Protein 1
Amino acid sequence: MQPGDMGWVVSRQTVLYTQEYGWNGEFEALAADIASRFIREFDPARERGWIAEMDGQIVGSVFLVKTDTPGTAKLRMLYVEAAARGHGIGSRLVDECLAFARQAGYQRITLWTNSVLADARRLYERAGFQLIEEKPHHSFGHDLIGQVWAREC
């Protein structure tokens, strides 16, 4: 990762979710908070971020962060640009998270997403994640169904 990558990720993911799902600025605040925390509290032995590029352009990202629960990591901010979908980038990003989690000694990975993010949910299912919790909430200007997914490493 290079300086400026996190700002790019926050911006692009916010624009993408605004265009595709009509989400408001609340999502940008959440994404910026996640990015800021990643930069400020980065633990290179336990955390990692990946930026996917195609033809010299950033087309996606994902982050794996430690949690307060021993042995458990959290997958954060997976996204792939619409024009880059169908090239296996999302699967590769998730696979990188899984490989690093095993190497770092994690036993479990969790993630939080929303039911409307169907493409991401399919990636998680193919990677062996299982839905463990659903809860309705109002965020980003919409009524949504939040989901927690998990898998063993």
Protein 2
Amino acid sequence: MSLQGKVALVLGVANQRSIAWSIARALAQEGARLALTYQNERLRPNVEELASTIGAATFACDVSSDQDVAALMDWVGREMGGLDMLVHSVAYAPREGLEGRFVETPRDAFRIALDVSCYSLVALCRAAEPLMKARGGGSVLTMTYYGSEKVMPGYNLMGVAKAALESSVRYLAYELGASGIRVNAISAGPINTLAARGVSGFTEMRRTHAERAPLRRNIEVDEVGRTAAFLLGPGASGITGEVIYVDAGYHVMGV
């Protein structure tokens, strides 16, 4: 499981409750050198403060900008000496895509959600491939949710974006496998993050999950971090193109 000497880039840290932050801490505990990104100057102080606690470097990146993605990978190659692991924990949908009826989703909201939540993974993988290939391969991980498969009222547009993301994982795994790069996703149960609070009915979603999951509870964010460290590391060297559920077993239930 040791990640000593490996370089990891984690996108999506917002605060100490972020899934991305739990993953970053788990990777640091296994010995990885880390770099974290922040979207803009408003988020910079918080991300830099967290990064300092694990000795991570930081860099600005708006994943909806090809120029930002290219600049990020240039910086990683120059300052970090290469890249072994990429964590994509980024998702966004305008509020009008999460409220009301899905059929009334505005075209612009649909475009933005698919761009930020799905296409950004494709763009990052394309830019990261040369860095990972130069080091003999690497591993990519993204975050999804069961709302990609089943209707979760209130999840709406984000469910469609996550479905596209999971399909992208499979296509990327196929194409990047020749470069020795694995691509997987974790489907986590509902966690009380800043992003999750924007989903209508989230509190009820967590209550139902805890009642019906085989383990009769909600998951803890650190459980996702530990699973991520495994999937990104050598212990999962034969796993690619998969969606791994960390949801206390909720997804196996029919009712």
Protein 3
Amino acid sequence: MVLALERRIGKYAVLLSMSTEKDEFIFTLPEHWGTCVGKVGSMDSQKVVAAIETAAKREGIIKSDGYRETHALYHAIMDALSGVTRGQVQLGSVMRTVGLRFAVVRGNPYEEVEEGDWIAVALYGTIGAPVRGSEHETIGLGINHI
């Protein structure tokens, strides 16, 4: 099993999450990979999970029916949220709020086709007290096999 340098799924997800509509992409995704991007702001981690899951289903990144793909996405989201919240996946209950851009990327990062698809979720934005100006930058990445 060889991880192909030009197929770093996490790198693509992070770059997409940090990009804005004004940015020009300096990379091309490998063929047959799927992506979606969006924004979410909340004091409730459940709302963050729901927004990402809804976007991934709406854009056809994962299937709406069935459990396996949703489960893989959920674990990638939770890993990314853990990075954003520094291991304590709590927001409103500890008086924190987030404003995040997210990117979901699905594809096979390996040279061998039989390794199958993986999913990466990157979150980039701000976290802090629910008072404007009290936030700082944060980033998280989660990658899971499907």
Protein 4
Amino acid sequence: MYEIDATLTGWINALAGDTFPDRIMVCVSAYGVPLLVLVVAANWWSGPDRLKTRHALVATGPAFLLGLGINQIILLFIDRIRPYDAGITHLLIAPSGDPSFPSDHATAAFAIAAGLLLHSMPRRGLAFLAAALLISISRVYVGTHYVSDVMGGALTGVLAAFLIKSLYKPQAALDRFITGVL
């Protein structure tokens, strides 16, 4: 299984080569998640059903944080070397000091996308899903993650979104307070 993962990772990273797409992927890798968070915040005042929209937007925050928290627990048990340290990829960005699995970028992006999709916001959710896929591919392209790292991160993000969906109910007192702001 590792051989397949390493081969796929190497193929994606081999597309890099001091070209214009390299610069785009480096930017997506660096700024993709913060940009998604800004877009979530900007959607606070949009949509015909503001309370439903706001409930979904608020739910993405705890899903994002829970996903990253789950990753920290996983890191206690799995200490995977980065693909550039294993000689599989060449790195286009600064090296990271933490283990490779799972990808926090993929977790965050997929938690947001899944949160919107689970809260019946298909248009926004699919747009965020496309962005999450691009961010995940960029992490492999720039050489910092294996394909399975971003897949694991995506799974963690989706799991976190499901957990938050089951816990954070619309029209509960907390929800009415938060969604009523501004």
